[in-house]
Amino acid sequence: xxxxxxxxxxxxxxxxxxxxxxxxxxxxxxxxxxxxxxxxxxxxxxxxxxxxxxxxxxxxxxxxxxxxxxxxxxxxxxxxxxxxxxxxxxxxxxxxxxxxxxxxxxxxxxxxxxxxxxxxxxxxxxxxxxxxxxxxxxxxxxxxxxxxxxxxxxxxxxxxxxxxxxxxxxxxxxxxxxxxxxxxxxxxxxxxxxxxxxxxxxxxxxxxxxxxxxxxxxxxxxxxxxxxxxxxxxxxxxxxxxxxxxxxxxxxxxxxxxxx
Length: 260
Prior knowledge:
This protein is of the alpha/beta class. The protein is built from 7 helices and 8 strands.
């Protein structure tokens, strides 16, 4: 079965329309499935949970390695481990659902996610994706009308984006684990009309002072407060806010002339 899974993507990747493979899911711990009653050898007795997880993870690693051998070194392979890690070096990245905002801390706390995102951002092609969503909609099935609630939670979207900009991978904001069907666009993505790639390259790594983190780019500055209380940041001269339409109280285009 694993050989079949490794061979099946080869044709649509080689001949189109696909140019890479996304694996769902790549858990390192499956002990929670079926209430922990997992019987791999089918002898009628539940197997040791840690052993089951180890075998599952090893098998997933074999699949990733087989895919890499089948597809070659240039084809991107990304996986979704949910709130877990996916420790297989032949991957080009992982999808971090609900991080840096959206997922309850019981599933993935912020600090663990931050370390994981930084590590995977610097791995392979750096195709790891921070996938934030609004805490206002909860973690579960999406109710009627919640699409708009989530879409306009600009505070959550901007927090997630600023955190992601502290590293060098990717970011998306949608309607959560059960809402990847949306493709929302925000002022920050194109500088409120300045065009894609408007921010330019980072001028160096992120800097940290207390709970504040910031990073300067060729055409902008990203600042984020990772703490739960207020903090003050004094921007260098020459910066102005975006002049956008989403949350105009913040996107008013005015020069930054005082501490924020």
